[in-house]
Amino acid sequence: MYSIFIIIKNKWLIFSRISLSIIKDILKVGLPLVPHSIGIFILVGADKFIISGILGLATISSYLVVFQISTIFIFVFDAINKSYYPWLFEQLNKNNDNTKNKLWLLTSVYFISLLTVSIFFFFHGSALITLIAGKNYMISNSIVGLIFLGQIFGGMYLMINNYLFYEKKTMLISTITIVSGIIHLLLISLFSYYWGLTGAALSFCLSKCIQFLLTWLNVYKITAIPLAIKSE
């Protein structure tokens, strides 16, 4: 309360200067992101209730440990994105074709680098999890690889999603996330029933891949960014 009093007393917040058009713009961009948050929860949280119901909590303990360790990538990608997108928006404001092509080249190199890193987890993921979590949480390389690849698709999605934010297509962002989340719930219910933990990991990976590809496709269609270096 004291801080609010100081702000008002020193006239740091003057309501008469707040533009109604700015408020409308904020609501127009911000409100559609509410379903986006729900979609994110479905993609990374709600599935745990489904697989625990199908496979049992004791069975999925190793899966949950791997998933928890893989969330390190979420923090890394989020930090990269927060550093990257202000610079990206500055470059996009130049509205220069050469700059856009360079941006796409940079994005391509980033994607290839991440996909190359993902190969490691398909061959040494199990050893890494055992090293971090202990021998009680031994799990196959394929499951570890799929979970980490899914997180990498999430990092690729963040990079390309910035273009939709630049175009203020927040409703589209929410739609893509919700659709990907629903697909994830359907796939994980089916895959985990037939293929157990491998099916659950595959479902997560495919859903994150779908989210990335849907975003990429819409960026290519809607924005002026030559994401596949459109032919003139």
UniProtKB/TrEMBL annotation:
Record's subcellular location: Cell membrane
Chief place where the protein resides: membrane
Entry's transmembrane regions: 26-44, 50-77, 103-133, 139-160, 172-195, 201-220
One cellular component term from this protein's GO annotations in UniProt: plasma membrane
Keyword Transmembrane applies: yes
Annotated keywords: Cell membrane, Membrane, Transmembrane, Transmembrane helix
Domain of life of the native organism: Bacteria
Membrane topology reported for the UniProt record: Multi-pass membrane protein
Chain segments annotated as coiled-coil in the UniProt record: none
InterPro entries given in the database record: Poly_Biosynth_Transport
The protein's name: Polysaccharide biosynthesis protein C-terminal domain-containing protein
Organism, as annotated: Photobacterium carnosum
